[in-house]
Design brief:
Largest sheet: 8 strands, mixed
Number of strands: 12
Radius of gyration: 18 Å
Bound molecules: cytidine-5'-triphosphate, calcium ion
Number of helices: 5
Number of domains: 1
Helix content: 25-40%
Strand order of the largest sheet: 5-4-1-6-9-10-11-12
EC number: 4.1.1.36, 6.3.2.5
Distance between the termini: 15 Å
Mean pLDDT: 94
Keywords: Decarboxylase, Flavoprotein, FMN, Ligase, Lyase, Magnesium, Metal-binding, Multifunctional enzyme
Order of helices and strands: EEEHEEHEEEHEHEEEH
Function: Catalyzes two steps in the biosynthesis of coenzyme A. In the first step cysteine is conjugated to 4'-phosphopantothenate to form 4-phosphopantothenoylcysteine, in the latter compound is decarboxylated to form 4'-phosphopantotheine.
Catalytic activity: (R)-4'-phosphopantothenate + L-cysteine + CTP = N-[(R)-4-phosphopantothenoyl]-L-cysteine + CMP + diphosphate + H(+); N-[(R)-4-phosphopantothenoyl]-L-cysteine + H(+) = (R)-4'-phosphopantetheine + CO2
Protein name: Coenzyme A biosynthesis bifunctional protein CoaBC
Structural class: alpha/beta
């Protein structure tokens, strides 16, 4: 069958997909966030379900409607996303990290709203590193043969950065797309190259996020079978 043609090749498989963007709270009303819409992760969840998989979608701050037949686990922060992924991973044949995970979080959370003080400049916000979920699940595979997929949005030297990142993360596949002000974030469409740890490169032409999702599942299914 040609790429991009839906077939029930994921029947009997359980896949975990993370989507959206984490929010790292500063105080009860403010957070550090990012521009991920969740659309690519939801497209992955929808297409996997259409191909017969049981799907757990770990959704970080997304307001998109839950795809039919998909088990949605809502989370807020990177630490919560990590807990949800680690809880779901032991039963998963594949884990796809499409979520935009904040690299840093505020070192401290103010239990009360941070207020301005007369005549004073604000305190700097100290940040600490968040755990690297993709690197962690790639290093400690919850089951043998589990396929782990990462996403990377890059601006310069897209492919070289992607290759280096694939190695560093230790995942099987890395979907690399080029981002800019008008590209990818919030858009219905995407364009990417999927790099494989085996040296493969699969270009996906500019098109709907569903088409990229289908190619990701084609590559995952090849590795599972
Ligand atoms: N990721 C993750 N945990 C983090 C950061 C990222 O699991 N703390 C995952 C993302 O979900 C994505 C992949 O890692 O699948 C790549 O994210 P990216 O931000 O491109 O990678 P970083 O290692 O954070 O590199 P950079 O410094 O370029 O942001
Ligand atoms: Ca990052």
């Amino acid at each position: 069958l040609a790429r991009g043609v839906t077939e029930p090749d994921l029947v009997g498989r359980h896949v975990v997909v993370s989507a959206g963007g984490t929010r790292e709270p500063l105080d009860p009303v403010r957070f550090l966030g990012n521009r991920s819409s969740g659309k690519q992760g939801y497209a992955l969840a929808r297409t996997a379900a259409a191909r017969g998989a049981r799907v757990t979608l770990i959704a970080a701050n997304s307001t998109l409607p839950a795809p039919a037949g998909v088990d949605v686990v809502p989370v807020g922060t990177a630490v919560q996303l990590r807990e949800a992924v680690l809880r779901a991973a032991p039963e998963a044949d594949a884990v796809v990290m499409a979520a935009a995970v904040a690299d840093f979080r505020p070192a401290a959370y103010a239990a009360g709203k941070i207020k301005k003080k007369d005549g004073q400049e604000p305190e700097p916000v100290t940040l600490v590193r968040n755990p690297d979920i993709l690197a962690e699940i790639s290093a400690d595979r919850a089951r043998p043969g589990q396929v782990v997929v990462g996403f990377a949005a890059e601006t310069d030297d897209v492919l070289a950065n992607g290759r280096a990142k694939l190695k560093r993360k230790g995942c099987d596949l890395l979907v690399v797309n080029e981002v800019g002000e008008l590209k990818t974030f919030g858009s219905e469409e995407n364009e990417a190259v999927v790099l494989g740890a085996d040296g493969s490169e699969t270009a996906v032409a500019h098109g709907p996020k569903e088409a990229l999702a289908e190619t990701v599942w084609d590559l995952v299914a090849e590795r599972l079978n």
